[in-house]
What we know:
There is one protein chain. By secondary structure, the protein is mainly α. It has two domains: about 5-90, Hypothetical Protein Yqey, Chain: A, domain1; about 100-150, Arc Repressor Mutant, subunit A, CATH 1.10.10. It is built from seven helices and no strands. The longest helix has 24 residues, at about 50-70. The mean pLDDT is about 90.
Amino acid sequence: MSLLxxxxxxxxxxxxxxxxxxxxxLRLLKAAFETARSQGGRSxxxxxxxxxxxxxxxxxxxxxxxxxxxxxxxxxxALSEEAEARLLGAYLPPDIxxxxxxxxxxxxxxxxxxxAPRDLGRVMGxxxxxxxxxxxxxxxxxxxxxxxxxx
Length: 151
């Protein structure tokens, strides 16, 4: 079952349970899927990697919005954004472990001949390509940076 199909089933369930907060977030997610599918003249559905990347993007937006609302003194809006982020996070596969990321960084750094922190970009691209949206970019960046500083 695709992620879009799962979201559709969850929308129906939220409607039956009259869970307005959950329903609103799920409708937002479904609309984002439909928008992404229709952009660029696509004729078919999104593939699994594209669906996950879209959910990650929405999750990141919610986290950033919560932080901005909190800085602006709108605690209730920040809590609402965080609740949406938790719901969106449930549609993501578990993140890759830190050890797996570190092993991939070591392999890629060796492959590309990285020798200093200036090689961050040369290592980041291939590492992120290996995980295809299953790893948080900020976490990977921090780990790559740490690895390159020890060389």
